[in-house]
Specification:
It is built from two helices and no strands. It has helices at about 10-75, 90-100.
Length: about 100
């Protein structure tokens, strides 16, 4: 009795290899497409980053100004029942922007 496994016919092996190479080629094409899309997204992100940074600064400035106006209006209103006090986080954010 032969203990070695029987080998598949050569045509079956060749067909199997062709199928594997075709699947590999498809995966490589998909990878190439994904890399191209990633490069496009990175380029667009790098172009938009300064605009996002400017928007962030403008939003922070508006928030700090609105908070200051709100605090002043409550401090000058004698009928107000709320306690007006400065917000430490806002003062810290304002002092950081002054140092830049």
């Amino acid at each position: 009795m032969n203990s070695y496994p029987q080998s598949a016919p050569e045509s079956t092996v060749a067909t199997t290899k062709q199928m594997h190479y075709a699947a590999l080629q498809k995966q490589l094409e998909e990878l190439g497409s994904n890399v191209d899309k990633l490069q496009q997204n990175l380029k667009e992100t790098s172009e938009l980053a300064p605009a996002f940074q400017k928007l962030e600064v403008l939003h922070s400035s508006m928030f700090m100004a609105a908070t200051a106006v709100f605090q002043r209006s409550h401090a000058s209103d004698p009928t107000s029942t709320t306690v007006s006090h400065p917000t430490p986080a806002i003062r810290a954010a304002g002092s950081d922007s002054d140092q830049s």
